Amino acid sequence: MQERGDTCDYCGEAGATDMHEWLIKRGAVPKGRKQLRIFDERNCSLLHHTCHLVEGQTKEMKRKLARVFLERYGLEALIGFVEELGLRDPSHLQFLKGVVKDMDEEGYSWQLLA
């Protein structure tokens, strides 16, 4: 994550200071060692403190961060992260696939991922 610098994943401006679990929240994972696995770069966004406080739990932020992380890591890497956790709730994968579908319908060029 250090190579990502201090750019806010939500607004794109420099000066991000907060880490935010954007896809899988701590409460979605059983307590214990497995819970620590959510602190993976594919699940941790960097945000301005204000962006985090104002937008941190909104659907809009989650959808925007999904696009940022899909561009950064690709769908396979994000699905891999979710599957590694072994969660029974399929909503996280369904959410990602829904965002990908929206991006496809908007004409997103996936060739940017290399």
Plain-language structure description:
There is one protein chain. The protein has 114 residues and is mainly alpha-helical. The chain has one domain (2-112). Helix content is 46%, strand content 7%. It has a two-stranded antiparallel ribbon with strand order 1-2.
Annotate the secondary structure layout:
Blueprint: E1 18-21, H1 33-36, E2 44-47, H2 49-55, H3 59-73, H4 75-85, H5 91-105
Antiparallel strand pairs: 1-2
Helix pairs in contact: 3-4, 3-5, 4-5
SSE run: EHEHHHH
Mean pLDDT, to the nearest integer, reads: 90
Low-confidence stretches: none
The biggest beta sheet, please?
A: 2 strands, antiparallel
Described by the principal axes of the CA atoms, the overall outline is globular
Relative helix content: 40-55%
Main sheet: strand order: 1-2
Whole-number tally of structural domains: 1
Fill in the keyword field for this structure.
two-stranded antiparallel sheet; 5 helices; mainly alpha; 2 strands; globular; 114 residues
Could you write a compact summary of the structure shown?
With 114 residues, this protein is mostly helical. The protein has helices at residues 33-36, 49-55, 59-73, 75-85, 91-105; strands spanning 18-21, 44-47.
